[in-house]
Amino acid sequence: MNRYHGVSHFIGNTPLIRLNRISDLTGSEILGKAEFMNPGGSVKDRAALGIIEAAEARGELKPGATIIEGTAGNTGIGLTVVGQARGYRTVIVIPDNQSPEKIQLLRALGAEVLVVPEKPYKDPGNYNKVAQRLAEERGYFWANQFDNTANRQVHYRTTGPEIWNQTEGRVTAFVASVGTGGTLAGTSTYLKERNPQIASVCADPYGAAMWSWFKNHNLETNDGDSFAEGIGQGRVTKNLEDLEIDEAYRIEDQSAFTLIQQLRREEGIFLGLSSGINIAGAVRYARQRGPGQTIVTILCDSGHKYISKLYNPEWVEKNGLKNDLPLESIF
Ligand code: PMP
Known about the structure:
The protein is an alpha/beta fold and about 325 residues long. It folds into two domains: about 190 residues, Rossmann fold (3-Layer(aba) Sandwich), CATH 3.40.50.1100; about 100 residues, Rossmann fold. It has eleven helices and ten strands. Strands 1-2-10-7-8-9 form a six-stranded mixed sheet, sandwiched between helices. The chain has a four-stranded parallel sheet with strand order 5-4-3-6, sandwiched between helices. The structure holds 4'-deoxy-4'-aminopyridoxal-5'-phosphate. The site of 4'-deoxy-4'-aminopyridoxal-5'-phosphate has 19 residues, from helix 7.
């Protein structure tokens, strides 16, 4: 066995960080899985590696192949990092409302990036549909993160066992928002197999349908919208099929924003907004169930990717968010 390894080996096995203020305020241990420490900087490195390895095992990916994907950015970054390490080219289709930092990073890494106008899923111009169509026309491998269950399987094999081991089986709830649903479904399925008492909790932004789906079994999105990138699902993807959920919350952007600002200011943890949605879900659950729990959530990606938006005072003011609300305001 080789003692030293290339970059793919270092995807996963991320630290579990105690979020000190909210743990102290709620009397529960609230822990964040530091997915921003993956080589491509997000939780989606795991899905990228899982999808590539499954396709290689089926003989669908051969060296020199081109991988195409529709993505809010992070899956594209993960596919490009793993792709560069294994001899695949990547073509990334991304909607034009995503942060410029992610688009710049994809190009700098060497992906071919197609920026397309933001369109709903049912529209043929939707980024995901464009990726599928180009894959068929050009003979590329379509990663298909939303409906390729290699995505949730990699969380079942890695994220779930890591959380179980890092908490020595003490975890009482796992909280995540949904983009593809791979993280929530794979991780909570594993944890429930270890201990059926572990709650699986969904934190959903406004403008998405997962809260309605898990609470009322319909796909209404109600009013509202969210600035969180990478999450906000309107349909039941294959990765979400048959998922058992114990609790779901709708989270306002302001609560998520207040949390990520507090973590930046007081704990030296620099995050994107989907992490704030996740942490707000963990806080709601902690308040609802009372002290003494061990609640784990996902720190999906870092604030570096959103400096021109979430960490730019002009953008913040223009979009009506408040930078300095006390942490207690989220309760
Ligand atoms: N947060 C961010 C920043 C993301 O890019 C994604 C993935 N699109 C998620 C959360 C959600 O992860 P998943 O696709 O596993 O549901």
